[in-house]
Amino acid sequence: MAKRSVLDLYRMKQSGEKACWITAYDAPTASLAEQAGIDMLLVGDSVGMCVYGHGGTNQMTMPIMLAHTAAVRRAAPDTFVIGDMPFLSYQVSPQEAVRNAGAFIQEAGADAIKLEGGRRVTRQIRAISDAGIVVFGHIGLTPQSSGQLGGFKAQGLTVDSARAMIADAEAVQEAGAMFLLVEAVAPEVTRIIRQRLSIPVYGIGAGPHTDGELLIVSDLLGLFEAFKPKFVKRYAELARIMKDAFTAYRKDVKDGFFPGPEHVYNMKPDELEKLRAELAQ
Ligand code: KIV
Fold this sequence. Notes:
By secondary structure, this protein is an alpha/beta fold. Helices cover about 45% and strands about 15% of the residues. It has helices at about 5-15, 25-35, 45-50, 60-75, 95-105, 120-130, 145-150, 160-175, 185-195, 215-220, 240-255, 270-280, and strands spanning about 20-25, 40-45, 80-85, 110-115, 135-140, 180-185, 200-205, 210-215. The chain has an eight-stranded parallel β-sheet. Helix 2 crosses helix 4. The radius of gyration is 23 Å and the shape is elongated. 3-methyl-2-oxobutanoic acid binds near residues 23 and 214.
């Protein structure tokens, strides 16, 4: 597979082929996703919930996000990798936003960055795109501001909220974002947004009228057990498989079946003989 670029993603939109992306936080997952032909990998700050055990995403920092992004990049050299800008890495000023977005590209090898928010972050989107960096906007349920939203709640369900989503989407495109991600928004609102915008519009929990779909890898694999959003489809039950494996391992150890003869490193017989003779003196 040749390395994916923004041109491939735009061609896919034109031809009606949906892009398929997942989040990835580590090298083994990224490598398997690339082998499976996944188009894009988002190194999401959802790593805070899926890997670090936080109740939200706002504890993630630039050093943490850069380390995970670099791991994903090393393991998936041909996949389009998006670094997710963590809380307070872009909100404070457009200058800080450019520096931190640049670090995802320069230090971690990302192809693009994503940041949350609509009209209130257009100065940041403009500054980052003016620096030549590909920006993914992200509107709807934006986890970094879930406190203001009253929790992880679907958006665009009332006329006012739908109007706000549409205005945010237009502002993000106008500011220079090359892609938009819409999260947990009513399908009709996503459809209107996609009709009004020329850039690819992707969804996570935003219905079928999109240019591509994103799922959080831990949801897709059935690894995240704290809760299951309505929009998630599980393609595996890894939590169950892992628990069964841990239980079987524990039982083998307790019952003396592990390690078996096939799991040990044997000395050469003559070396063993020599050792025995030496110790017998
Ligand atoms: O961090 C993340 O995985 C995200 C998705 C929820 C869109 O931002």
